[in-house]
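User: Please fill in residues for this 319-position structure.
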């Protein structure tokens, strides 16, 4: 668990972070979202003491980090840097092994863990002897993640982990990251300025502006209960796509007709509208079966899906 209590940081006359407090539960992913310069990176770096706050306290698993040696603290926290930050003259294997070597792991243990991560992150085995410039941007990002995960820390800090990638690669790696078991076990704070990415990866989003928190909540709360005009406008440009991501089959369940298909594999009601549309688009069937609570199933086609979604939307507006 991570807890920030009223942390602030000033650089000269710039109040980079102003009285920021939040808690991140175990195994939760909190995404710091906001425009450039709003204080996201400074906030993140105060969690592993790369920057010392002027005021406030940070606790990790109940311990005040101020009472811990910064180097020891950092070896216990995974950190994915902005712009990847691999050592250019180290091979990939050497880049991944930096912290294990500091911790005096033996060679066999380092080798076994490195090979395990290479497989999990879908990097080619021969990349271990290569140098960072010989890999693609996407592969370098995976190495950056492998380096942060190598000691299996319970806390992971990620600063724009996919920032250097084109949109297509970014979207596919986001999906891959989301499915990675190692990440599901971790308490994560991640920085991004990309709204779609925040909605894809966050359990909760912390929206910031000018060093302050504007709103913290689930993606759904931010969309349907924005606290002020800033929060509303921040999401306005991509609203429909974001709604497709947060609204799930279980939300629109009451609006779906009770027509049932008897055969075919059932999809989970946890599926969001976006993924349901993708599945319908790529399926050779015009209807798919979704299973809800009490073993009830419903069939969806494009028309029913859109209708159900629109009815759900209307209800949110009128609430
Ligand atoms: N070392 C520093 N010295 C002086 N000013 C700094 C320093 N680091 C950050 N700042 C300033 O503090 C403010 C917050 O910066 P920060 O990097 O935390 O923002 P950010 O939201 O992460 O932005 P970005 O997405 O562009 O990285 C900015 O005005 C920035 O110029």
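Assistant: Residues filled in for all 319 positions:
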């Amino acid at each position: 668990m991570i807890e920030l209590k009223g942390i602030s940081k000033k650089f000269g006359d710039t109040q980079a972070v102003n009285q920021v407090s939040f808690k991140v539960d175990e195994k939760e992913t909190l995404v710091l979202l906001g425009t450039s310069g709003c204080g996201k990176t400074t906030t993140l770096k105060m969690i592993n003491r790369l920057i010392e706050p002027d005021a406030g306290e940070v606790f990790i698993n109940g311990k005040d980090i101020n009472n811990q040696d910064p180097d020891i603290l950092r070896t216990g926290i995974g950190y994915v840097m902005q712009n990847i930050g691999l050592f250019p003259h180290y091979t990939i294997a050497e880049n991944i092994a930096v912290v294990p070597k500091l911790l005096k792991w033996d060679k066999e243990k380092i080798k076994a863990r490195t090979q395990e991560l290479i497989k999990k992150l879908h990097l080619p085995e021969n990349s271990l002897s290569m140098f960072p410039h010989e890999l693609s941007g996407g592969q370098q990002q995976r190495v950056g993640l492998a380096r942060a995960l190598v000691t299996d820390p319970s806390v992971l800090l990620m600063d724009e982990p996919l920032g250097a990638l084109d949109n297509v690669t970014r979207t596919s790696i986001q999906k891959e990251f989301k499915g990675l078991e190692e990440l599901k076990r971790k308490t994560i704070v991640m920085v991004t300025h990309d709204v779609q990415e925040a909605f894809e990866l966050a359990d909760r989003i912390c929206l910031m502006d000018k060093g302050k928190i504007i709103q913290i909540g689930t993606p759904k709360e931010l969309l349907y209960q924005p606290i002020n005009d800033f929060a509303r406008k921040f999401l306005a440009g991509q609203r429909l796509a974001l709604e497709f991501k947060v609204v799930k089959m279980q939300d629109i369940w009451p609006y779906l007709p009770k027509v049932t298909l008897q055969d075919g594999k059932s999809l989970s009601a946890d599926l969001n509208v976006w993924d349901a549309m993708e599945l319908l688009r790529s399926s050779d069937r015009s209807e798919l079966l979704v299973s809800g609570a009490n073993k009830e199933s419903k069939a969806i086609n494009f028309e029913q899906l859109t209708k159900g979604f629109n009815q759900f939307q209307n209800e949110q507006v009128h609430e």
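For context: The chain has a mean pLDDT of 90.
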